[in-house]
Amino acid sequence: MLKEIEAVATATAAPAKAAHAQPAASKAPTGMDAYWMPFTASRQFKQSPRMFAKAAGMHYWTPEGRQVLDGISGLWCVNAGHARPKIVQAIAEQAAEMDFCPPFNMAHPKSFELAERLVKITPAGLNKVFFTNSGSEAVDTALKMAIAYHRARGEGTRTRLIGRERGYHGVNFGGVSVGGMVGNRKSFGPLLGGVDHLRHTHDLARNAFTRGQPEHGAELADDLERLVQLHDASTIAAVIVEPMAGSTGVLIPPKGYLERLRAICDKHGILLIFDEVITGFGRLGSPFAATKFNVTPDLMTVAKGISNGCVPMGAVFAKGHLHDALMSGPEHMVEFPHGYTYSAHPLACAAALGTLDTYAEDGLLTRGAKMGAAFEAGVHSLRDLPNVIDIRNIGLVGAVELAPIAGQPGKRAFDIFLDCWEKGVLVRTTGDTIALSPPLIIETSHMDQLFSTLRDALKRAA
Ligand code: PXG
Prior knowledge:
Elements: H1 2-13, H2 42-47, E1 54-56, E2 59-61, E3 67-70, H3 73-76, H4 85-97, H5 109-121, E4 126-132, H6 135-152, E5 160-164, H7 173-178, H8 182-185, E6 195-198, H9 204-207, H10 223-231, E7 236-241, H11 257-268, E8 271-275, H12 289-293, E9 299-302, E10 314-319, H13 320-325, H14 346-362, H15 367-380, E11 388-394, E12 397-402, H16 411-422, E13 425-426, E14 428-430, E15 433-436, H17 444-460
Parallel strand pairs: 3-13, 5-6, 5-7, 7-8, 8-9
Antiparallel strand pairs: 1-2, 2-3, 4-10, 9-10, 11-12, 12-15, 14-15
Helix pairs in contact: 4-14, 5-14, 15-17, 16-17
Bound molecules: 3-[O-phosphonopyridoxyl]--amino-benzoic acid.
3-[O-phosphonopyridoxyl]--amino-benzoic acid (PXG) binds next to helix 3, helix 6 and strand 14.
C-alpha cells in the first residue's frame, strides 16, 4: 500500500536523473522577502532555503526531486503518512460539494458525524467535542471552558491556571501564559495574570537513558499541593500539562506522576487538562496518552493528527458534566460565547473523517505499540556516540539530547538537523535535543535509514 502511494508520487515528482541531484540549497522561489516565516531561523533559511514540493507516504521530495525521509510526520501531525487516498478524496469531494458553512447557529452533517465518531475513541467520559483550527486555539478554548465552568457552578473565584515549566501549549496568550518555554514567553510582556507553574520533570541525573517511562519523579506532582497551599484551592480553576511534553524536547512522564496529579486535582476540585496535541491519535502506541497511561483528564486538547495535518483542525474534548453546567439561560441565547469562523470547517471535517477511516483501516492508533520495540532499539543504539547525554523514547517518539557547544546553545543540534537534511532525512530540533516522531506507517527499513543517517551525522558533528 505504502509502495503504491509513493510510486505514484515518484513518477510525478521529477525526472529520474534529478532524483540524485546534489542536496545543495533547494531552488529558491523568486522574491523571498515578503514571507515572514513562523518559528524559523529566517535569515539562515533565506540564505540557504530548504523547500519541499511533494509528499507521499513516508517521504517528501524537494523541487529538484530529491527524496527526503520524513522523520517527524511533517511537524508531529501527518500520523498516517502523506497523500493518503481516502483523505485526499474526502477533501476534494467536500470542496466541490460545499466550501463553507457558517458554524454559529448553523451546521453541516459532517460536523455531527465527526463528533460522534471521535467520542467513540476518546477516553470514557470525554464525550463532548468543541472544534477549533489549531492546537493553540484548542488550548485557549479549554482554559476558557475551565474558568466558565467553575463560574457557572457558583465558584467564580476559581480563575487561576496552573501550567508547568517547559510546557508548550501553543502561541496564543493563554497558551503562552501557562506554557513554560522561556524563549516563547520573554518577548511578550506580563502575559495572563493569575498563572503559576509546576516544576518540569526532566531529571538527567536520575533518569538518563531510560527506555519508556522514567522511574524517578512522581513526587514532582506534589508541587500542585504546594501551589494549593500558596494560593488556596478555591482560586484554582485548572492544571494543564502535556502528558508527554513534546516541543520542549520529549519529556516522558515519570511512573506514577500523572496518576498523582489526577489525585491531587480530584482532592481539591481542580480540573485537569491534558494537552494531547502531539500525543493524540496514536503517537504513543495508544489512541491517546490518556488511554496509554490510564489517567483521564477533565478536558483534552488535540489538533495535528485529528486531520492528519491535511486541513488545519483542533478540538477540545470535555466531560459531559462540564458542558452541561454551561447549558443554562434563555434557550434563544448563546450559552458559551466562544467559537471561530472556521470551527468545524467542512474541509477539515471531511479530512478528519477520511483520517479516522485511514487510521482504522491500517490499525494506526495502536501500531506504535507494535513498532515501538524496534524504534526503541534503534534510537538507543545511538547512545555511545559523541556528545549524546540522554536518549528517551515512548511509542513512536524518540529524542537524543546532546551536550551543547559552550556558548552556543542549540547549535550542535541545528548543525545535525542540516546534515541529516542534506543526507535525505528530516528530523526536528529543539534546543540541543533532536526529536523523532515518524509517521505511524513506518517500516523497519525506514528506521534503518533514519538511525544510520542520524548516527553518521552525530559522528561528523563530533
Ligand atoms: N499544544 C501542544 C502540546 C503542541 O505540541 C500546540 C499546542 C499548538 O498547536 P498549533 O496547531 O497551534 O501549532 C502544540 C504545537 C515542535 C513543534 O517542534 C511542536 C508544535 C508546533 C511547532 C513545533 O516540537 N506543537
